[in-house]
Amino acid sequence: MSLGKTIKLVVYELLLYACLCVPIFVVMERFASLMWQVRSKDLVAYWLVVAASIAYVTSVTLVVWVPLKYFILRSRFFSEVTAWRPVTLAFVILSTLPCFAIVVASSKVQLDGEDRFDGFTELPVSLVLFSLVIVDVVERIRPFRLTGQAEGLEHAFEMPTPVLTHLEQVPTVSSQLSVDRGQNGLPTQLEGINGSFGCRRADSEGYFSRASSSSYLYSTRATSGRFGFLWAREPRADLFVDSFLFWMDTAEMVRAAEEPSVYYSAWIFPVYLLAYLSVLRLVVSPDSPMLSSLGVMVQDLPFLIVRICLIAVFGHVTPLFYVMKNMLVCLTFLYFHFLTKLKIFKMTSMF
User: Which parts of the chain span the membrane according to its record (predicted)?
Assistant: First the structure.
């Protein structure tokens, strides 16, 4: 292994390990501060929680994380796994699950008492979600180089899709019959037929030219000139944008749980439970066909139900934009996957 690949491997592993440990330490420290206030500023409770976090991270590192990384780097079994990501699964179980559990436990501790000390501000939860983004980016960008141009890499980050290469106009049956009748000397309405056919032909040719030219919109080649950089597309940079967009809905759901009316109530349990179920989508490979259906079943449909309930109980604690987004995704998934297969929707004369 060359020096550059060794440095890249070490940097990636340090990033993954930092994403595993830092959120746990931050969340546990906040919980320790909460216990210090609940128990009348008892330092023993504070240091017990801190010691428990250190012991947990040490045990997870020695018992699970280091052996798992060793087998992944040395064994062929994990290298042949493509449908799901073992490292991401271990990260979601060992880091994200304890962090969400501690946040819910902090709410439960204050629900049992009369005082409200800590609303568990936005920092710990944002740190957990940011760690998930970093893990996703590292796992997806690991096989590719970080230097040089992106030539040859633009298709490596995308799912294979049909490519429009060549289009020809296919004559209709009516136009073919009109041509045959004209050759046989039979009377034909040349003006009406030719006029209407000419219009259709012009429209079809215009449609074909627009369809073929639409592939230019997805071109990754940069044009020359002073402002050529505006047309350039960098798939490695787009990967970061896609990873953040992947978590926007989950981040908003968790943010709604930080509202005091929701946080100091029993509704925090279903909110964080569904948020964690949506996190499990990260385990599936990014190019897996299951990702679309999993997004509806574990995110959009449950989030839609919970958001409607939260708005009905607490008012507008979550934006209506996300409610409409979840509703539209569920309806389009139902329509295009199930309703379009019915006989009534197979009639070509409708649309």
Answer: 12-32, 44-66, 87-107, 119-138, 262-284, 304-336
Domain that holds residue 70: 3-152+232-345
Number of domains in the chain: 2
Q: What is the tens place of the pLDDT at every residue in 48-59?
A: 999 999 999 999
Write the pLDDT tens digit of every residue in 40-87.
777 888 899 999 999 999 999 999 999 988 888 787 666 666 788 888
| Alpha-carbon span 2 to 337, nearest angstrom | 48
Q: Which residues contact 315 (CB under 8 A, 6 or more apart)?
A: none
Residues 213 and 333 in one domain: no
Domain-located, residue 24:
yes
Decide: helix, strand or coil at residue 147.
coil
Residues 254-265: pLDDT tens digits? 988 888 888 888
DSSP string, 258-299: TSHHHHTSTTHHHHHHHHHHHHGGGGB-TT-THHHHHHIIII
Distances (CA, A) of 54 to 57, 61, 239, 328: 5, 11, 33, 45
Query: Is residue 224 in a domain?
Result: no
Same domain assignment for residues 238 and 322: yes
Q: If DSSP codes are grouped into helix, strand and coil, which group holds residue 84?
A: strand
Residue 263 shares a structural domain with residue 333? yes
Which pTM was predicted?
0.74
Please report where in the chains the tokens 């079943």 appear, as a residue: 297
85, 287 in Cβ contact below 8 A? no
* 129 and 70 in a common domain: yes
Residue count of the chain, please give it. 351
* Residue 238 sits in the same domain as residue 119: yes
**Is 245 or 76 the better-scoring residue by pLDDT?**
245
